[in-house]
Structures are given as C-alpha cells and as structure tokens.
C-alpha cells in the first residue's frame, strides 16, 4: 500500500495547481455522535467563519438534520457509543449526490470495551477506515494542498480499501495516509485525522488554517448556497415534558433518558433544601442529554449533561455531582457568584451526592479537591480568590469548598441562609453587578457576624467599605 500512496503523492505533485476556490462554506458540524467543547462551534470559529463562511451544529440523529442550507457536513467522533445506522449513511449519500462535501475527522478510539470505532461505520461506507497505527512525523503534504508546513497534535493513520479511488493529500513519514479525498456522487468526501485541527475549547489554536480554509471551500464548492441564508442548528429531535422539565435528546441517547430523569427527581428536592430557595426565575427549565463522558454545561435556563459521566448509568454518583454542579448555576443567577462560582457549584454537587447516600464517593471527591488545593496553598492564605488571575485552578475550585466547610461546622444550614438572604437583598432591578465585597457582606449577615477580617486573613482582598447598598 505504501508504494501506491507514494505514487498518488507524485501524481498530485505533477498536476497543475487549481484556481483558488471562492465558494462560501455553509457547514453543519455534527455533535450528535460525540459532544466536545472543541467541536461545539469551535471548529467553525477556527476554520469556517474567519473565511467568511457560516457554521451551525447538528444535535440530532443525522437523518433528522437540516442540511438544506449547507454545502459541507463535518462528521467527527472520538470514543462514542452512538451508531451510524443505514438511515444516517443514506442521508449523507443524498447530500453528496447534491454536490455537498463531507469531512470525516477521526481518531481510532474504543468506548468502554466496545469492539467498533463508531466513526468507521460511516468512513467504511466510502472505502476508508481509521486505524490505531500512530502517524510518524514529519508529515508530507501534496503540493496542491498549498501547505508550507503541516502541524499536528500526533494522531493516527487511515487505511484505504482501494487507494486508486483516493487522492492522498497528507501522508506520514512512512507513506501512510493521514488525509485523503475522493469523489462521491457530485460531491466529495475527505477523511482526516482530527489531530490536524485545533483542539482547544477557546478556539484559539487554528493550526493549519492557511490551507484548511481553501480546502474546505473547495470541498463545498459542488453545492450552491445562498449567502443570505446561513445554515441552521438542528436540535435533538426528541422532546419530552416531565413535571415541568423539558428533556431533549437524540434517538441515539433514548436508552439513557429515563435513568437521567430519575436522577433529576432525586437531586432537585435535595438542592432546594440545601440552597433554601428554588432556581432563579426562568432557570432550570430544560435538560439536554449530550453524547459524552466529558462533563456538561449550563446556560442557567438549560443544563447539558454528559450522559456517560462518571460511568453512568452503571454508576450514579458522578451524574449526581454533575447535575448538582450544573444546576447550581441556575440557582445563583441573576448574579453569578464573584468569589466561588465554579467552586461552589462542584461543592453543592458533592453535598448532593452525600445526601443521596453516596457518602464514600462524595467524601473522596472532596478530599481529592482539598488535597490538590493544599499543594498550592497549604494554609489557605496564599491565593486571593477575588483577584482571579494567577490563581491555580485547583485553588479556585477547592479553597471555596474549604471556606464553606468551615462555615457549615458552625451553621450547617449556612448555604440556605446565604442564598435566601441574597434573593431578598440583591435586586437586579436596582443594581447592575454583585461584587466579591457584596457577597462577603451577605454571607456575614447570614452568619450573624462580620466575616471580612477572616476573609482578609485568608489572603482574599475584600473590603466592607466598598459594599454597595444592601
């Protein structure tokens, strides 16, 4: 196979360079098979929108996605249990028949002992397969790619069932494909290692963007789109209302919906008891189930839960903590907590797990955080939580947990006292912000004593004289 790949590269070198493509890219990035904080909009931010294109996300089973305004589909997955059934393949083939481009970005990865790398279920339909063999650097690019250099985060290689059908654009040091392209219908399929694209959630590592942007335009050029009508997101297709909560998920995640709602029904009353108040007005109205074991998100009104977090559904503690964490953001609004927004969220999640009978796991989670924190701040006086910058993540998360643990020894219901008082005193109609000084003042009143000297002794720069009217 190596000699054939080398021949393909030589043929590409002899071919004249094509004219610079000018097609506008309207991409749909699939996050229904694996949700990651990189591909949730970040792929488009690095490679599509800077070149004048538009990107939307598909959260639904592929056969339910809205591709009408798109000319590029980006399929990606790591270790996932979500399949690519025949109906999905048919939807992708129909898109290719119209002239659309399909970029399949993957790395061979198995989920929880699964024998199949799920993205191969669709890559194999077009004669390619992601394999576990690691790519050896340096990588070589065909001249037509226009790449002065190829950056990579490592990555693996691709096996081609019939190399003659493919144009290899990038190969590793041993001539094995890392990126290849072929025509299908009126369109074109690109298979590629995900290691050739950025991986930071902040979308600030657009590696290889100099050649990715024209490549994507060329890949999408077979299908005309209207620049005035960008592509639209397709949300999860199943929507269920239960006890005032909207739950959304794709058909892939239907087997987990009932178990997730059962956790929610246990967690919700415990949170109301711990925090002393219901969620802020209009918040915690919906759950979106995400195909990932990598966490979740919260917008306040909507909480997203990584469905395999912590070994769920076989194990339950991790989901209790995750739901407690993300839901806490629905309780603190309309003003996020200025000193401990993330730390208190995880702390509440730990307390929820403890209350629901998972004391050993909750205790271990808290200990792990505190141990990590004390390696940076042994006596809890070194880092200023109010300064934020320069505070190690472990300290930003766990120093608040330690503070609340000390206060709860004196007043076990201090969380409820604090949030009840915050709701009464902090009126968003009368103020535009809620500061670290304000939060310590509210906490002081909830405790019944002035906590400013104690916080200052912990190295936290708060000042009672700066407190706004409460």
Overview of the molecule:
There is one protein chain. The protein has 470 residues and is α/β, with parallel strands linked by helices. It folds into two domains: 2-220, 3-Layer(aba) Sandwich (Rossmann fold), CATH 3.40.50.880; 238-466, Orthogonal Bundle (Neutral Protease, domain 2), CATH 1.10.390. The chain is 35% helix and 17% strand. The protein has 13 helices and 15 strands. The protein has an eight-stranded mixed β-sheet with strand order 2-1-3-4-10-9-8-6, with helices on both faces. Strand 1 (26-30), helix 2 and strand 2 (54-58) form a beta-alpha-beta unit. Helix 6 (257-275) crosses helix 8 (341-355), helix 8 (341-355) runs antiparallel to helix 9 (359-376) and helix 11 packs across helix 12. The longest helix has 19 residues, at 257-275. The model is unreliable at 1-21 (pLDDT under 50).
């Amino acid at each position: 196979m190596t000699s054939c790949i080398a021949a393909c590269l030589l043929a590409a070198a002899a071919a004249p360079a094509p004219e610079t493509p000018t097609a506008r890219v309207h991409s749909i990035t699939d996050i229904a098979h694996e949700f990651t904080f990189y591909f949730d909009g970040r792929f488009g931010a690095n490679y599509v929108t800077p070149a004048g294109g538009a990107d939307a996300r598909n959260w639904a089973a592929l056969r339910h996605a809205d591709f009408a305004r798109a000319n590029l589909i980006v399929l990606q997955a790591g270790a996932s249990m979500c399949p690519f059934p025949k109906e999905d393949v048919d939807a992708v083939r129909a898109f290719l028949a119209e002239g659309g481009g399909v970029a399949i970005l993957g790395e061979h990865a198995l989920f929880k002992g699964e024998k199949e790398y799920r993205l191969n279920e669709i890559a194999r339909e077009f004669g390619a397969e992601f394999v576990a063999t690691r790519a050896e650097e340096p990588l070589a690019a065909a001249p037509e790619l226009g790449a002065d250099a190829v950056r990579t985060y490592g990555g693996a290689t691709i096996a081609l069932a019939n190399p003659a059908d493919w144009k290899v654009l990038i190969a590793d040091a041993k001539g094995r494909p890392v990126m290849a392209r072929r025509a299908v219908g009126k369109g074109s399929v690109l298979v590629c290692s995900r290691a050739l694209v950025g991986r930071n959630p902040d979308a600030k590592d657009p590696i290889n963007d100099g050649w990715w942007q024209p490549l994507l335009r060329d890949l999408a050029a077979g299908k005309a789109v209207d620049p005035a009508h960008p592509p639209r997101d397709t949300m999860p297709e199943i929507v269920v209302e239960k006890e005032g909560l909207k739950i959304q998920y794709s058909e892939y995640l239907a087997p987990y919906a009932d178990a997730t709602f059962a956790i929610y029904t246990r967690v919700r009353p415990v949170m109301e008891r711990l925090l002393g108040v219901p969620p802020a007005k209009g918040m915690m109205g919906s759950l979106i189930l995400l195909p990932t074991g990598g966490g979740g998100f919260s917008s306040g009104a909507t909480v997203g839960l990584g469905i395999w977090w912590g070994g769920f559904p076989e194990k339950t503690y991790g989901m209790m903590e995750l739901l407690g964490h993300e839901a806490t953001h629905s309780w603190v609004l309309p003003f996020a907590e200025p000193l401990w927004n993330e730390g208190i969220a995880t702390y509440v999640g730990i307390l929820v797990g403890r209350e629901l009978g998972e004391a050993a796991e909750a205790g271990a989670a808290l200990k792990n955080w505190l141990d990590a924190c004390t390696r940076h701040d042994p006596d809890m006086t070194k880092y200023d939580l109010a300064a934020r910058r320069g505070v190690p993540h472990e300290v930003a998360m766990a120093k608040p947990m330690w503070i609340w643990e000390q206060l709860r020894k004196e007043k076990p219901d201090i969380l409820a006292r604090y949030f009840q008082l915050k709701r009464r005193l902090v009126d968003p109609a009368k103020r535009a912000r809620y500061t670290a000084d304000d939060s310590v003042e509210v906490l002081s009143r909830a405790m019944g004593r002035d906590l400013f000297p104690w916080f200052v002794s912990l190295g936290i720069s708060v000042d009672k004289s700066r407190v706004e009217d409460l």
